[in-house]
Amino acid sequence: MPLRHFSCRDFRCLPAAELAPHAEFTLIFGPNASGKTSLLEAIGYLGRGRSFRGAATRDLVRHGSQEFLLTGRVALAGSDHKVGVSNGPDGLQQRIDGESGGGLAALAELLPLQVIDPEVHELVAGAPEGRRRFMDWMTFHVEQGYLAVWRRYRRALKQRNAQLKSGINALDSWDEELAAAGTELDAARRRVLEVALPIIETSASELLQAPVSFDYHRGWAADNSLREAFTEGRQRDLQAGATQSGPHRADLRLRVDERLARRLVSRGQQKLLASSMVLGSVAVVAERLGRVPLLLLDDPAAELDQESLGRLMAAVAALKGQVIATALTAEAAPLPTELAVFHVEQGDLKKHG
After folding, report:
1. Residue 215 in contact with residue 264, Cβ under 8 Å?
2. Which own/partner contact pairs does 135-141 have at CB distance under 8 Å and 24+ positions apart?
3. Which of 25, 201, 332, 345 lies at a C-alpha separation of 20 to 30 Å from 245?
4. From CA 93, how far away is CA 49, in angstroms rounded?
5. For residue 32, how far is the Cα from the chain centroid?
6. In sequence order, what are the residues at sequence separation of 6 or more whose Cβ sits closer than 8 angstroms to the Cβ of residue 45?
7. Residue 64, domain member (yes or no)
8. Per-residue pLDDT tens digits for 155-211
9. Cα distance between residue 201 and residue 185, in whole Å
10. Nearest Cα residue to 299 out of 4, 17, 53
11. Strand pairing partners for 113?
12. What's the total number of domains in the chain?
């Protein structure tokens, strides 16, 4: 089990809360605005150093407090590790076993996690940026050294864009650096997707009960090198003041038949498809790490009929990992027989039953 114990203080509406999750399935139920999603968000923050709901720090610190504090005990390779994260006037602070080095990458490596929440449909219906983050999450955990390449590419991209905005045409040196890092980044994504897409497509087809496939678009023309794409697009880039080709423009595009395309107008069907992508990514990373990432499941019943919900919960159970879920009631979703149940109301969390 990845997470053995969790506590938070002054996070959103939660003055203080402690949770000892079950090794397999933990359910937190309560009415709307009771704090159950905030608790899930706090656990996600412990593993990512940011809110999966995109909230700013000022919105996460409980009213009247200066900062929030999150702590956890995480099992890895036969040992328990203590992790703590706080944020407030002094900015984000994180410690693992008393040491402050490593940054957000250290948090992600210690407590890898994925989230399925009511906004997960945006992975399908939203902008390509979300799908790039999805690809990068997998690639970070599967490809050693990927983060360094990603950071190198982002630095070079920032510098090239600054030159473009100033109207300076002396771009050759930045083109070389950006093309080298971008080609390496794209190759890493491709290696991971070669393994991941068959798994994700199978997961999606089973949940949606129709054939589903994806195409990876790397962000520049297939018949050009990235260096050539920069050269050919230079005038366009100068006019736009930004680099228009490269892995930062990549996308993962859905390919479905006409019958399924009509169904995907429904947010519930979009949620199923996006959830299948998340579950497939968890399976891919689990194979590489030798442990299943933690899955945070916020209100799985939202937007789904009972049959679809049953298929989703069966797919979640098939991962055989640790799941922490929220629901309006203890009977809102099909649940395993072995689980821990907690009730939360007005920010007060208590063991149930």
Report:
1. no
2. 135/189, 135/192, 135/193, 135/250, 135/252, 136/189, 137/281, 137/285, 138/192, 138/196, 138/281, 138/284, 138/285, 139/188, 139/189, 139/192, 140/105, 140/108, 141/108, 141/112, 141/285, 141/288, 141/289, 141/293
3. 201
4. 9
5. 24
6. 11, 51, 52, 60, 70, 85
7. yes
8. 999 999 999 988 776 788 889 999 999 999 999 999 999 999 999 999 999 999 888
9. 23
10. 53
11. 294
12. 1
Which pair of structure tokens corresponds to residue 278? 């998340």
Dump pLDDT digits (tens) for 268-282.
989 999 999 999 999
d(CA 295, CA 43): 10
Residues near 261 by beta carbon (within 8 Å), at least 6 away in sequence: none
Q: CATH number, domain at 67? A: 3.40.50.300
pTM reported for the whole predicted model: 0.95
Q: Which residues contact 55 (CB under 8 A, 6 or more apart)?
A: 41
Instruction: Give the range of the structural domain holding residue 13, as residue numbers without chain letter.
Output: 1-112+293-306+322-353
d(CA 11, CA 107): 18
Q: Could you tell me if 296 and 40 are in contact, meaning their C-beta atoms sit under 8 angstroms apart?
A: yes
